[in-house]
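Hey, weird one. I pasted the 3612_t:CDS:1 sequence into the form twice and got a warning about non-standard characters only the second time. First submission, copied straight from the form history:
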Amino acid sequence: MLKIVSGYLHRLAAYWFEENVDTIIRWNANSYAASSFVLLFLEKFSTEEKQNLWHHQLNTLYQGPYEKVDFYTGKFKRLLKKVDSSKTLSDKYIVRLFLNELRKNIITLVVFSYPKNIDEAIDAAKQVESSQYYEQQSLILTQLSGNNNAIDNLTNK
């Protein structure tokens, strides 16, 4: 893993890795923090300023009016991973963060499923979104058949 990581790093991260390549001999080992790539990398690049920025972005993230749950979920999970890399936030809090900024027509139905963790909340949100899609299709078909009836009535006179 360590042999290929240098090919994925750019600019400052690549330069940092080159400077520390002899020190870094493990990928991710809590017991060996001084030689673990992940821990050293986070120590170097996860500054207080960036943590504050990521917290702000996570707390102000919202699902746009036409944005799919999958897209919102992707943004949410990327920010959550940056904010809570040590996985110390409770499941309940993470679910609340996720639900707070879902579209209102989705959140009200997801809450009734009482999700215990983020995966359950995401699954419920996707199911609600999917059912709303079918509801919209049904409305469109009803409107189209209503228009056809109106046309039939006009042409039969």
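That's the output from the first submission. The warning seems to come from a hidden character in my clipboard, not from the data itself. The chain has two domains: 2-45, 49-156.
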